[in-house]
Design brief:
Chain lengths: 287, 287
């Protein structure tokens, strides 16, 4: 893998669709995921094993996994919040397919209490059994840390607090950590300050950027993060998901916009822009 | 003027056209400038009083000035390199129109020697008579400083050197200084470091950003500069001019892209995107 390669983690079918009102059929989800794989995306988040009551959009993730083709070079990521979710995942996974299990915490106490109903420290405790199960099963782990720049409850998140939280998460198990600007208020300078703190302890290849475009600066923040050596970014096809804190506003940066920027900057993504355009069209029709 | 207002300095008809092969007729230049004013642009660089041998594209600036309408709220900027140019400008200016006279230096010695055939200190000396004439005549001055991030001859430009050069230029006369990333290699972090140094001594309202999109990061650098309080940016309609150091590559950031970003970020520009789109179409047909 050359230095100019940037890995895109497509989160539309999970992080995106989970924040859309429509609940898609298994068939439509699989069609969307197949179009993303056909465009050259190699890391695709396809669902989550969470409570079907809390997140009805993801209730059929087991059937999505059963229906997806086993592809040589594609890793399917699933969000697994607890050991119950792990058991569901373990039952649904198919031989031959590559999976990644994602866990989720917040860098801010306010968001952790509101979203996970516990402190940050407790949320890290809670995911230990999932991490251990994944390690034992040889399934790759990934951590999401939200509110790395601002929290809707606590205000700005101090960079040192983000660095501490990432460190505590990675004490549980080796994993890449995706840093989320959940409110989409990050700016290049704040992104750089936050990443500076984190990269003091963690190599850049173990960090991904997850920028929301709510404030219109997602691509500027990606450009800033690239400067500090980040080569992994999350995005959602068609900007699926929007912003849960500002109805109608953009949330996850759109994969097609991210790819256009990266190609313009001379990076290699392995993604075909024409095919990606077709996937984006499909995503917009589905929402 | 609210804090959210961003002033765009349209440089397409001068800085842009001067780097295009085609030499436009006075009529076509005036049509382009009128379409820019109609779109709501209030600061338009319309020509330069330089040697017609060195820059044949600008040889008819006196006739452009004669043909342009006197508009209540539009300032026409002209580049004036020396007292000979000032005399030509003084003869061509029309009563009732608002003008701004721009002077040009480099932050790097290599570019200064190559482009102006003298040291940076000498180039500042050379523009003193123009600055004095403008002050005396009550014409607003503006300074361009090129190579504020990289120089094609000297490599990276140290931020302290840019700050020093800006200070020496403003010792000549009060003026807004536009800082040019001439090679288009700036990144958000380098932009922030350079501006940090400059803004230590100069208020943000006296500094403009002039970013080239050669490296694809012009808008990311604008976003970074906005964070530090800059509210003045240069751009060229349709991206006129390209990059003199990389044929076919983009140079000046396109005004229509800059306006789209600023509006997305919630800034007010006074520019009508639809009319601007028509001006961009015209610019692309002319080049």
């Amino acid at each position: 893998m050359s230095a100019a390669f940037v890995r895109i983690h497509e989160v539309g079918p999970r992080d995106g669709l989970q924040n859309e009102k429509a609940v898609l059929s298994v068939g439509r989800k699989v069609a969307l995921i197949e179009s993303l794989a056909a465009a050259g995306l190699r890391d695709i988040e396809v669902g989550s094993f969470v409570s079907p009551v809390r997140v009805p959009q993801m209730a059929d993730t087991d059937r999505v996994l059963a229906a997806l083709p086993v592809l040589q070079d594609v890793t399917y990521a699933v969000l697994v919040p607890n050991i119950r979710g792990w058991q569901d995942f373990a039952a649904a996974r198919r031989d031959g397919a590559a999976y990644e299990v994602a866990v989720f915490i917040s860098a801010s106490e306010g968001f952790s209490r509101s979203n996970l109903n516990c402190s940050v420290a407790q949320s890290i405790e809670n995911l230990v059994p999932v991490a251990q199960a994944a390690l034992k099963a040889g399934v790759r782990l990934r951590g999401y840390v939200s509110c790395v720049v601002d929290c809707p409850f606590d205000g700005p998140t101090p960079p040192a607090q983000v660095a501490r939280t990432v460190g505590r998460l990675r004490d549980v198990a080796p994993m890449q950590v995706s840093l989320g600007d959940t409110l989409g208020r990050a700016t290049p300078a704040r992104t750089l300050a936050m990443l500076d703190a984190v990269l003091h302890d963690v190599p850049a290849e173990d960090i991904a950027g997850h920028f929301h475009d709510t404030g219109g600066r997602a691509l500027a923040n990606v450009a800033a993060a690239l400067e500090l050596g980040l080569r992994d970014f999350d995005s959602a096809i068609g900007g699926l998901g929007g912003c849960p804190y500002a109805p109608g506003a953009p949330g996850n940066v759109a994969t097609e916009h991210l790819v256009a920027l990266l190609h313009r900057l001379g990076y290699v993504t392995g993604v075909d822009p024409d095919r990606l355009g077709r996937a984006a069209k499909l995503a917009k029709e589905l929402r």
